[in-house]
Amino acid sequence: MPAFGPSDTSEPPAARPVALKRVTEEPAFVLHRYDWSETSLVLEVFTRHFGRIALVAKGVKRPTSQFRPVLLPLQPLQVSWTGEAEVRTLKSAQWQGGHVMPTGEALMSGSYLNELLMRLLARDDPHASLFDHFTMAVRLLAEKSDAQHVILRAFELLLLRDVGLLPDLAHEANTLAPLSPDVRYVLTPESGLRAAHDDDPHWLSGEQWHNLQAAMDGPAPFVTTLRACANALQALRPQLRHLLHYHCGVRVFKTRQLMLDVQAMTRPRSTGAFAPGDMATPNPEPSA
Predict the structure, then answer these.
(1) Where residue 255 falls among pLDDT bands split at 50, 70, 90?
(2) What's the predicted TM-score (pTM) here?
(3) Which residues make Cβ contacts (< 8 Å) with residue 150, sequence separation at least 6?
(4) Gap between the Cα atoms of 141 and 101, Å rounded
(5) Residue 98: which of 138, 68, 51, 130 has the closest Cα?
(6) What sign does the CA torsion over 91, 78, 50, 100 have?
(7) Handedness of CA 247, 129, 194, 152 (dihedral sign)
(8) What angle do the packed helices 104-120 and 148-162 form, to 10 degrees?
(9) CA-CA distance, 105 to 101, in Å (whole number)?
(10) DSSP state of 185
(11) Which residue from 94, 161, 167, 202 puts its CA 20 to 30 A from 18's CA?
């Protein structure tokens, strides 16, 4: 019989532990958080290079956790994590600096942007340019709260385009013909741009739609889209809202409903007599 060497009868070598994938110092924003256990949270995080991901922050609810003052929404962070499963494990997080958190109505507007990202972004689908637009939008909301409407409209347009839900704004949908500058057009969720009817309450001229498309195609799209939106706010807002409701499958966004509820609670109750100015200065409509 052939002889077998010692190696043939020895025990197989022990399996080596597989190293977990680690990502370090990734730019990120916290979009949403929910309970994982009595002491831990799951964070929905928007990262620049990995898109929207889920991270479990273990022990974050303990009073001594170093994460507690850091893991706040609308704050630019750098996060590190391990794992390749659907829910990774947060290892470190630090504030990146650059701006303060929006407050007041600007905070609600920022929360609305978070809700849009949660509804429209699939997990693990990177959108680096959209992350940069979001970073600028949050910073401007903190610095220029009086410009909330134009900031939101610009981000809505760029978000819809980045996820492939915004039709071409330089051509009519049915005929693919270039828009006529002086003709009125309406944006519809089902088919894109069409010529406006007499009973359409909101429309933009072909020139305005074309300017929006050119702004988004430019080298600095957020800045140029801000400028283009400023000239079309009143008519653009309801059309984009209709488009967003259609693609998100909702009748009203949670953040918008919350703002409406807050305004209803703070609105003075009628006492049977109107003070001067009561009807002339109603509460403004929420930016979202």
Answers:
(1) confident
(2) 0.84
(3) 226, 229, 230, 233
(4) 9
(5) 138
(6) positive
(7) positive
(8) 10
(9) 12
(10) E
(11) 94
